[in-house]
Amino acid sequence: MQDEGSDTDEDKSVLIPAPPTPQSSCWRPLSSRHGFPRAFSLIELEMAANGFGTENLILEEDGMKLYEGIYQETPILIRLFSGDDDRFWSLLKVLSCVRHRNIVNLVGYCCTADSLFLLCDYPCNGNELAKNLLWKTRWYIALEIGAGLRYLREDCADGPIIDLSICSSAVVFSHSSTAMLSMFKRAKWLKGDLPCNEDSPADLERCTCPTIEEDERLLADLCGYGMFLIELITGKSAQTFQEQGEGQSLVDWALPFLENGSLDQVMDPRIEDTSDIRVVDHIAQAALLCLKNDSCHRFSMSEVLAVARGDKFAIAKY
Question: Which positions fall inside the Protein kinase domain (predicted)?
Answer without folding.
Answer: 41-314
